[in-house]
Amino acid sequence: MKKTYNEVAGKKVGRIEAISDGVFAVALTLLVLDIKVPVSEIIKTEKDLIDAFCGLTPKFLTYFLSFMTLGIFWTGHSSQYNFIEKSDRNLNWMSLFFLLFVSVLPFTTGFLSEHIHFKFSVFLYWLNIFVLGIVLLIHWNYAIKKGYVSLADDEIETVGKAIQKRIIIAQTLYAIAALLCFINIYLSITVTILIQLNYALAPFEKLKRAGK
Questions:
Q1: HSE on the CB side for 66, CA within 13 Å?
Q2: Overall number of domains in the chain
Q3: Which residues fall within 8 angstroms of residue 119, CB to CB, at 6 or more apart?
Q4: Once rounded to an integer, what is the mean pLDDT over residues 108-127?
Q5: What's the pTM value of the predicted model, to 2 decimals?
Q6: CA-to-CA distance for 187 and 191, rounded, in angstroms?
Q7: pLDDT tens-place string over residues 64-76
Q8: What range does the domain containing 101 cover?
């Protein structure tokens, strides 16, 4: 029986996992390169050095913000591949488009740190996060639809819905945080970081379990 290229391409799940880890590792490393050591020629006193260091606050803030962002999306993507046991060309390209926007994040981070007082920079950064979330959701829904996940029917209902719900709620919260830039830019960024800390450390989930 003859097969087309599209029917045989992109079958190895391990290949996309490998390139995903590589892209995330590079993106995480590139984030810190936006933080430059203050030029020594213009620093004459301790006060000059402290002032120069304090001037890096926006860059440290956006670095932490984006490190958390990438950590959360890496966890989300790898969590899906805990259950995805098969793949095809379409699913591979969904992952590649997801990685495209992962690799763009160091740029939107640098753009935000350089223009932190402008709403457009916040919008651009939020748009980056939004597209990452949407592509990740489409990726998971496609894998379930094609039967590429190693889950029983009852598990798809629980695990599948849990992953979908997490993405949708997170994107809704990120949108609310982005809209806060119309009140105050730093308020918007702070709320975004708090949302990320919740998803990274799950303090509310731990409190909920402790109360049971």
A1: 34
A2: 1
A3: 181, 182, 185
A4: 94
A5: 0.86
A6: 6
A7: 999 999 999 999 9
A8: 10-210
